[in-house]
Amino acid sequence: MKVAVLSGGVGGARFLLGVREHFAGTGTEITAIVNVGDDMWLTGVRIAPDLDSIMYALAGVNDTERGWGRAGETERVSAELRAHGVGWPWFTLGDLDLGTHLTRTHYLREGLGLAEATRRITERWPLGVTLVPSTNDEIETHVLTAEGTMHFQEWWTRHRAAIPALGFEYRGSEAATPAPGVLEAIAAADLILVAPSNPVVSIAPILAIPGIRQAITDAPAPVIGLSPIIAGAVVRGMADACLTAIGVATAADAVALHYGARSRGGLLDAWLVDSADAAVVPVIEGAGIRAAAVPLWMTDPATTAEIVRAATAV
Ligand code: FO1
Asked: Domain 2-139+173-313 falls in which CATH fold?
């Protein structure tokens, strides 16, 4: 069996721990198609937060409290960079984490694509999941605000999404092409999962790359999504600020309707909501999307594996 998962970083990482646990021992090939809209060049290195958050989590070397970066991290190099006035003072690159960025930059400078660089970097750990960036091209999510347009990381990390967003741009996406392995994973999948990641800044930049949405629409596998919203609140992160900006309510059914039914030109065949949102199941089904309500809190990999089992049964 083959499973393809569209995923962002921190929430996606938690979800993938459960996907791996659910399919453990079954010989299932799991491919995560990962957002790269958060990526950027900073102090001469290429940073890919979502790929790294997933890699560190699956490798068991992540900082579980922060949700990003390495456990047992030190920040000596970042302190030096700050003293030099280089980089973003509000964005910390840990010393261990910098090892990843330097390695990735080394491969990119050698002329490899991000997908091959990621393959080589992830070889270090038996992740049980193949990580594929959505594209080898450099695309960047920018946020439009009344105070100007800024890179997603500035809005998210520096301003904590407190400046109201007026819109989002996935710069470079129109000219981007799917990375090697993306369309293949979608076409070969027996199951396509849309992780409970941020619909606006994690999943949308993947779908903005020409060819990916179409490949999903045409795929033989069922497309099953999981709500990142539980009882009108975000599970983690600041997705509510993103959804508000694009005119979508912070509600499990509103996100499902935003993605739309595959049978009606959208993305989804089925959608899982939390038990707390059971009342909206008929609304989602009325829009042509099969729906079920189950506990969706991803408290640990075993609980998340149970969520994935429910997703395969909806
Ligand atoms: N998030 C922060 O809140 N502060 C940081 O200084 C920070 C540094 C950082 C460095 C590398 C990396 O891969 C991620 C990092 N993050 C940091 C997380 C990241 O900004 C976001 O949480 C994601 O991009 C959103 O998925």
From this structure: Rossmann fold (3.40.50)
